[in-house]
Amino acid sequence: MKKISGVLAVLVLLLLQVGGAFAQSSDYEIIQSFKKSHQSLLESAKTLQDLGQSDLLKNEISRLEGEYGQHRKLLDEALYPQSFEASVVALRDQLKKSTERIALAEESKQDKVKIVEITRKTEAVEKKIVEISAQNEEYRVSVDKLTREVQDLSTRIQRLSEENTGLLGEIKALQAENRKDKESIAKLQALTDKLNANIRDRDELIVKMMGSLFDEYSKADLTDAQKKNLLAIAQKNDYVSNIVTTIDGNIAFVDAALLTPQDVKLIRDQQKKLSVKWEELKPYVGKLYPDEQTKARDITMVDGRLSDLKKSIDETTWKSIHQVFTAQNIAIGPFHNAGEFYSHLLAYIDEQLKTPSRATYQVFKHKIWDSPIKDQWLPVIPADELTERQRLDIEERIALWDKKISAIYWQGALIGVFGAAMIALVAVMIRRKKKQAPTA
Fold first, then answer.
1. What are the residue ranges spanned by the domains of the chain?
2. Within 10 Å of residue 394's Cβ, how many Cβ atoms?
3. How many Å from the N-terminal Cα to the C-terminal Cα in the chain?
4. Distance CA 56, CA 273 (A)
5. pTM across the whole model
6. pLDDT tens column, 414-437
7. CA of residue 375 relative to chain centroid, distance
8. Taking 70 as the threshold, does the pLDDT of residue 279 lie above it?
9. Which CATH architecture fits 128-327?
10. How far apart are CA 197 and CA 349, in angstroms?
11. Contact partners, residue 40, CB within 8 Å, separation at least 6
12. E-assigned strand segments in 196-332
């Protein structure tokens, strides 16, 4: 029994020794594993380069603390004079320092970027200031030039308007005298030509003034203040009044004169030019007015004047054409437009076909229709007023009149020849009888 008890005691002692060795081996591995993990995390924290990795390391430190927290007493003894808690705090302190270092570096980098951006913006602003200064100087020079130009144009327009009023008065006075002598006719023509030339010059001036002011106004880079300045220039020079006065002067001239085909072409071209320019500028002109009522009144007035001018040109054109017939004593009746001209002319020719007169036809064909109507007047009449079909109808009717006259002419000629032949035959017969009669 004593022997067995001794053996059991030895076995227990051996088991205790082996168990202690196993325990010591396990504690050693825990300590070494902790130290190794701790050192690895410490190195990662020291060499941290990206703020994005900071949260990962923070999680790893927390995981280390949780995993080895149950071995706190063992690790405190192994790490003496440090402790487990101090080791974890050291990791967190190092991570905090590295994070702050990176944040400072990022902030410094951002500051540098901001400095570069601010420098770039400052340079751009300085450049813009230089450009604006140059533009302002260019604008000032341009406005000074424009002001002088508009004032000069306004003065010239006013001078031409006054001169035209005088010329128109002289023309009306001569027309009232109704003198037909060569000197009076020549004087009337000279006055009319001068007035016509003045009107063309004034129209050119008003179009130029309209264009120069609003070409400047429509520039996209002008400020509101600069645009108001230009509008003040327009108001000061009574812009709309100049336009209306010019159109009224044109209407007065057209109403008072008989026009040539060349006059009609020039005046119609000028009227179209004024109308086109006005339509371009109407939106800008509207900005001259502080209230809608005044703006609507003046714009409507100019629109109406331009419409009146076109109507007056049309009426005077047909009045001048009618004068061509009147001057040759060809009475086809009054007409005031293309439709009336067409119907009256056909009615006149149809009436002539009933009792054709060669003398009347010759006057109509050679002194009226062939020239100046067909070769001078018809080319200035728009095709939408007197259509191609209407022109052909007139030509066909004149051709029919010509055939009637030709038939009458040849009929008369044949009768004349026959009459002459008969006279000759009678004369021959009488002569023969005289020869055959016996002599006493």
1. 27-126, 128-327, 338-436
2. 19
3. 233
4. 80
5. 0.55
6. 455 555 656 766 666 777 777 666
7. 39
8. yes
9. Up-down Bundle (1.20)
10. 38
11. none
12. none
